[in-house]
Specification:
By secondary structure, this protein is an all-alpha fold. It has a single domain, classed as Glutathione S-transferase Yfyf (Class Pi), Chain A, domain 2. It has 6 helices and 2 strands. Helix 4 runs antiparallel to helix 5 (152-163). It is elongated.
Length: 187
């Protein structure tokens, strides 16, 4: 009975790993697309701020600060945010499933494939979920603040916060490389 539980666990683990690798790729693509959108918003707002300086009319100043072409970029950035939110939720669900799989196997120290025990997979996915969650909050804040920035330095700060992620970074890529290596030669 224990062997069938282990095999069931391995099969489910393979599915979870495959989905999370795919989601990580989607995150990276969304990150790049989001940066392009943020850069466009920064450019639009920079032009708007420069135009505002030369305007004398108060109503005209308000229209200048929020040009019509800004709206479509904000909407696109909001779509990117939903991608991040969905990936974060999926990572949380994967973590929950792994914890339950660990209970099914009964021994969290049993090695799967090469050297990782179930506890190591759970630790990896816990760190991944935590990183996604923290980075998602930063992206939400940037998307909220960027269109309303009133000076060039705030625009640069927001775009830079998007461009250089604090939690989903080279370390995360390295951890996925370790995961890939661990599961390369399945036995």
């Amino acid at each position: 009975m224990q062997d069938s539980n282990v095999q069931t666990c391995k099969d489910r683990l393979d599915i979870i790993i495959s989905q999370e690798k795919s989601n990580f790729s989607k995150w990276q693509l969304a990150q790049k697309r989001g940066l392009a959108i943020c850069t466009s918003i920064e450019s639009i707002k920079t032009r708007a701020l420069e135009s505002r300086e030369s305007s004398r009319n108060l109503k005209e100043k308000e229209e200048i600060l929020y040009p019509k072409d800004l709206t479509q970029h904000i909407e696109k950035l909001n779509i990117i945010l939903t991608i991040f939110k969905d990936i974060t939720k999926h990572a949380e669900e994967s973590l929950r499933q792994l914890i339950k799989l660990g209970k099914l196997v009964g021994n969290m120290d049993k090695n799967f494939y090469q050297s990782w025990p179930m506890s190591q997979y759970i630790n990896f996915f816990d760190q991944l979920y935590s990183s996604y969650n923290k980075e998602n909050k930063i992206k939400q804040r940037v998307a909220c603040e960027l269109p309303h920035c009133m000076n060039r330095s705030d625009l640069i700060r927001c775009t830079t916060a998007w461009e250089y992620p604090q939690y989903i970074d080279e370390w995360t890529s390295l951890m996925f490389a370790f995961l890939e290596e661990e599961n390369k030669n399945k036995t």
